[in-house]
Amino acid sequence: MPEPTVRAGLAADYFQTYSVVGLLAVIGVLFVAVAFGAGRLLRPVVPTPEKLLTYECGVDPVGEGWAHTQVRYYVYAFLYVIFAVDSIFLFPWATVFAAPGYGAATLVEMFIFLGFLAVGLLYAYKKGVLTWT
Question: In this structure, which of 28, 32, 46, 109 has its CB flanked by the most CB atoms within 10 Å?
Fold first, then answer.
């Protein structure tokens, strides 16, 4: 069992490293707060009806604010995000696959992973999600 002085020294080192992280977080929060406060104090405040009007890309609004958006756009975006995130998992796999002793196990795991992706893509195809009409 380590001596109490050694244990106290380890605890002090442990808390010192976290105090640096805490101090950096406090400095970051203060920096953002000062920047927002300075912006609030220095900007001109002259509200006019034109400034308070909602606009989209410089075009004045016409009609209601509610617009119908088709769900298929969200489905395509969701599928893109899924496959983009899943492709990110392929890069660490490629680096581990090259390491000695990991070849067969990582190859089997990645083919299982790609199989799940293929089943998901096949399911989306069978449900007609991938057809643009």
Answer: 109
Would you state the pLDDT for residue 56?
Answer: 66
- Cα dist. 30→33, 84, 109, 111 in Å? 5, 36, 46, 48
Convert the pLDDT of each residue in 27-65 to its tens digit: 999 999 999 999 999 998 888 887 777 766 666 666 666
pLDDT tens readout for residues 74-98 = 777 878 887 787 778 777 777 777 7
The one-letter amino acid at 108: V
Q: Three-state SS for 71? A: helix
Residue 47: alpha-carbon gap to chain centroid = 36
Say how many Å lie between the first and final Cα of the chain, rounded: 72
Give backbone dihedrals phi and psi of 104, rounded to 5 degrees, phi first.
Answer: -70, -45
- Closest-CA residue to 71 (of 16, 12, 8, 129): 129
Q: Are 110 and 93 in contact (CB under 8 A)?
A: yes
Pair of tokens at residue 117: 């992706």
